[in-house]
Amino acid sequence: MNTKLEIIGNRLDTYVETKRLAFPRFYFLSKEDLIQILSNSDDKAIISLHLKSLFDGIVSVDFKDDAVFSMRSKEAEIVELTKPVKTGRIDVEKWLFNLTEIMKETVSKALKTGQKAYTDDGRKDWVLQHPG
């Protein structure tokens, strides 16, 4: 039994490592946390618990149906993504990778918009501007 248990443990380690190679941010999680995510890949609430470990500054994301449409910071800032990230029927590491790419795209677009507003409006107006 100990031999079989050791074989299972080795195979589990190999499986976890392949998932970490597919989505390197999984290296920020303990093996136990990663197994929890992988074994509950359809449960967005469990995945959300680990987002703050995967993404610096992100506490949660907002789901609608089978897609992520915005991200939230610990300061309660909400940033709408440039396009929703589909989560249904997709491996968790794949949609998290897609989320990472869309996050980068969203922040890049926001920076460009902010820089343009700053040069067009002037510093005083830009600083006092309120979103939305």
Please give a structural write-up:
The mean pLDDT is 90. The chain has a three-stranded antiparallel β-sheet. It is built from six helices and three strands. β2 (67-72) and β3 form a beta hairpin. Helix content is 58%, strand content 15%. The chain is of the alpha+beta class and 132 residues long. It has a single domain (2-127), classed as Dynein motor heavy chain, linker domain, subdomain 3 (Split barrel-like, Alpha-Beta Barrel), CATH 3.20.180.
What would you give as the CATH superfamily?
A: Dynein motor heavy chain, linker domain, subdomain 3
Number of strands: 3
Name the overall outline: elongated
How many domains in all?
A: 1
Radius of gyration, in angstroms, nearest whole number: 19 Å
**Intertermini distance:** 62 Å
Q: β content, as a range? A: 15-25%
> Helices and strands: which structural class?
alpha+beta
Second rung of CATH, namely the architecture:
Alpha-Beta Barrel
Question: Can you tell me the CATH topology?
Answer: Split barrel-like
